[in-house]
Amino acid sequence: MRPGIHPVSRPVVFRDRAAGFALLSRSTLDSRSTVEWKDGHTYPVVDVEISSASHPFYTGTSRVLDTAGRVERFERRYGRTAAARP
After folding, report:
1. Cα–Cα distances in angstroms (integers) from residue 64 to residues 19, 34, 40, 53, 55, in the given order
2. Coil, helix or strand at residue 36
3. Are the beta carbons of 62 and 55 closer than 8 angstroms?
4. Is residue 70 part of a domain?
5. In a domain, 16, yes or no
6. Closest CA to 43 of 20, 14, 63, 17
């Protein structure tokens, strides 16, 4: 890699306040606010709105849409019948 053209990568804590979840990772993001991590070191912290701890897909609270009913309603509305299906 050429020196001087790449951003500095450093440890950063990503915190989801809604779920009370925090993750220490490496990133090029920087923040003025800091937090003391479990290892006793202080790291910059970036607050995020959603993470794997609060996203409905990962928590299992996502809703399954009635796609069959939607398809049938679309076919009734626009004239395609079940007999015309390949």
Report:
1. 23, 39, 43, 19, 15
2. strand
3. no
4. yes
5. yes
6. 14
- pLDDT classification of 66: cutoffs 50, 70, 90: low
Residues 3-42 have pLDDT tens digits of 889 899 999 999 998 888 999 999 999 899 999 999 999 9
Decide: helix, strand or coil at residue 71: helix
Overall number of domains in the chain: 1
Cα-based distances in Å from 8 to 1, 45, 51, 72, 75 = 13, 16, 24, 54, 55
* Distance between CA atoms of residues 81 and 74, nearest Å: 10
Q: Is residue 85 part of a domain?
A: no
For residue 56, the enclosing domain spans 10-80
